[in-house]
Amino acid sequence: MFQSYRRLFAAPGALAFTVAALPARLAISMFGVSVVVMVATLRDSYALAGSVSAAGLAAIAVTGPWIGRLVDRHGQARVTVPATIVSAVAAGVLAFCAGADVPAWTLFAAYAASSTSPNIGAMARARWAVLFPGRPELRHSANALEQSLDELCFMAGPVLAALLCTTVAPQAGLIVAIALMVAGSLAFAAQRRTQPPVHAEATREPGRSPLRIRGVLEITLTFLATGAVFGSMEVVTVAYTESLGHPAAAGIILGLLAGGSAVAGLLFGTLRLPGSTPVHFLICVAAMAVLMQPVLLATDVWVLGTLLFIAGLATAPTMITSMTLVHELVPQSRLTEGMTLTTTGLLIGISAGASIGGWVVEVAGAHTGYATPAIASGLALLVALAGFGPAAFNRRRQAT
């Protein structure tokens, strides 16, 4: 298995930008849990915590594609440095406002203002595409590596965030996340050797959106439903573990979900599967929908952790095949924006899922809240079938 990934790091500069990005990846995984636990603890409301988290992610969904377009037009380093500074200052204001006697709207405003944080994952994937042009097998392994690194960070990040927020101070998780984001983003931007070149096409047609490319919109909408799985899972798990008297276990439980995904992602990256990428995508989304349903049967934190680890086995392959699809559909000059757009769908879904999950917990209880990710995973499968299923394939064949 390791031979597949060893070939990736033989490329000059690949190891340097991968390691440099790790602190920023970890910070991204800490932000959500840190904000939810911080607001819920200091303001005594899971509904408010979910809404604040949703508002921040919605703002990222709006600014993310714009930041991605700027990266394609001006280069990664020129955009990453100022965007990171603005995001860090705004996140610091959020940490202050959460514990101060200020109106709740300040939390929404501060979190929204922090949305300029650049998408390190999309920029790293764009670098792999430049390093291995015309090498689909290596780009598949690179996408798998990127997703597995994301999942490993999401395994460690929530645990660290929950521990800091519950044992040090409610704002501690967010403060540490800010420091990691700044360090990682600036270190990544400093790796100019592997930075993708600015393409003339991105400058000549600045208003053309990758959403106009057939297939990109379908992936984005599928990601919207998938994001609802992740967003609701985060809020519901924090509430459920607290209802059982184990609030610090939330990070561990969410880490198991990411751990299962990381293991599956690393193995998936070594496979050379027959068939087309759209077929792989459909199979992975279907597996995610099926494996998410047993979560409703969880009776304690140990059963929940086991079921979420199993459910996570399908999430990384789904993300990997989706990014492979984006690479096949979007031209190199728009790749960062294209990947950011699909991620935007994910973030909008996370935003909606966090809000809906918090509302369900308030109305029907923490355990019932797990119906939200179960239903959302089924919706993701329906959308994927509508976009890439047999009926959609026949329509495209007739159109050509």
From TrEMBL:
<feature type="transmembrane region" description="Helical">
    <location>
        <begin position="373"/>
        <end position="393"/>
    </location>
</feature>
<feature type="transmembrane region" description="Helical">
    <location>
        <begin position="47"/>
        <end position="67"/>
    </location>
</feature>
<dbReference type="Pfam" id="PF07690">
    <property type="entry name" value="MFS_1"/>
</dbReference>
<feature type="transmembrane region" description="Helical">
    <location>
        <begin position="79"/>
        <end position="102"/>
    </location>
</feature>
<dbReference type="InterPro" id="IPR036259">
    <property type="entry name" value="MFS_trans_sf"/>
</dbReference>
<feature type="transmembrane region" description="Helical">
    <location>
        <begin position="338"/>
        <end position="361"/>
    </location>
</feature>
<protein>
    <submittedName>
        <fullName>MFS transporter</fullName>
    </submittedName>
</protein>
<dbReference type="InterPro" id="IPR011701">
    <property type="entry name" value="MFS"/>
</dbReference>
<feature type="transmembrane region" description="Helical">
    <location>
        <begin position="250"/>
        <end position="271"/>
    </location>
</feature>
<feature type="transmembrane region" description="Helical">
    <location>
        <begin position="302"/>
        <end position="326"/>
    </location>
</feature>
<keyword id="KW-0472">Membrane</keyword>
<feature type="domain" description="Major facilitator superfamily (MFS) profile">
    <location>
        <begin position="215"/>
        <end position="400"/>
    </location>
</feature>
<keyword id="KW-0812">Transmembrane</keyword>
<feature type="transmembrane region" description="Helical">
    <location>
        <begin position="278"/>
        <end position="296"/>
    </location>
</feature>
<dbReference type="InterPro" id="IPR020846">
    <property type="entry name" value="MFS_dom"/>
</dbReference>
<feature type="transmembrane region" description="Helical">
    <location>
        <begin position="211"/>
        <end position="230"/>
    </location>
</feature>
<keyword id="KW-1133">Transmembrane helix</keyword>
<feature type="transmembrane region" description="Helical">
    <location>
        <begin position="168"/>
        <end position="190"/>
    </location>
</feature>
